[in-house]
Amino acid sequence: MSSKSQLRYSVRAQNHPNVLVKKLFEIAEAKKTNVTVSADVTTTKELLDLADRLGPHIAVIKTHIDILSDFSEETISGLTALAKKHNFLIFEDRKFIDIGNTVQKQYHGGALRISEWSHIINCAILPGEGIVEALAQTAASPDFPYGKERGLLILAEMTSKGSLATGEYTTASVNYARKYKDFVMGFVSTRALSEVKSDVTTASEDEDFVVFTTGVNLSSKGDKLGQQYQTPQSAIGRGADFIIAGRGIYAVPDPVEAAKRYQQEGWEAYETRVGKQ
Ligand code: 5BU
């Protein structure tokens, strides 16, 4: 695991060149949470209700905005207001995967206006380097109004059974992240990837990518459609900086209690990892 994962979020925040990552680490330390809730509900009312109730316990809310049956201006304004109220970031798990010209239009503008409200986005690298270059280019354009408060996670591994995002694919993800590090803030992966030796670019001394790990659940080992779960302790032990839980939180009788439990377990695992400093 990278030496950076042994550091406190606050120390990583101080040294980090990326404004959004700095903010993310500051939120984690201030609220004592590394929980990202995957709010996979299907109406705006449910989404905003969850965001408001869970807001105090999470660092990030992850959305699949295209599963809402009633996406509208109200969704955007509501979510944005709650992100400010509770001090969390928004991560649209859109998993862009197309040629550069298309993803630029899917990200900025379009029906979902993702760049307007989502701090964090992600992409798969099946199309090759061009997808990362295209998204980075959009965010760096002088016409892009959201400044530095936007970032990209590369989907370097997946949690589903038989995932093909392994080996060379994962190595290429690390390559592209190093090459476009101004916009790429880290990875969605099941472990820290800083030890991966990429062939194009070598890791710089100060490299500090953020690791988000999905498939976190305290009471289940998986679902009937190939999802595979691990616990907060196991994810954080393997290098996750932020744990992502969906059904383990929103689909139980008391989501607030569940969020508190994931918050506590995630934070204890983090404290154990960084030790006394
Ligand atoms: P769950 O209810 O905790 O299983 O939800 C997991 C969420 O994370 C869901 O929104 C998935 O789309 C998402 N996910 C995942 O489960 N595994 C992955 O490898 C990636 C995303 Br990338």
TrEMBL record:
Pfam families: OMPdecase
Organism: Paecilomyces lecythidis
Pathway the protein contributes to: Pyrimidine metabolism; UMP biosynthesis via de novo pathway; UMP from orotate: step 2/2
Family of this protein: Belongs to the OMP decarboxylase family.
Lyase recorded as keyword: yes
Family matches, as InterPro entries: Aldolase_TIM, OMPdecase, OMPdecase_AS, OMPdeCOase_dom, RibuloseP-bd_barrel
EC numbers for this chain: 4.1.1.23
Gene: URA3
Domain of life: Eukaryota
Catalysed reactions listed for this entry: orotidine 5'-phosphate + H(+) = UMP + CO2
Residue intervals of the Orotidine 5'-phosphate decarboxylase domain: 34-262
Keywords: Decarboxylase, Lyase, Pyrimidine biosynthesis
The name this protein goes by in its record: Orotidine 5'-phosphate decarboxylase
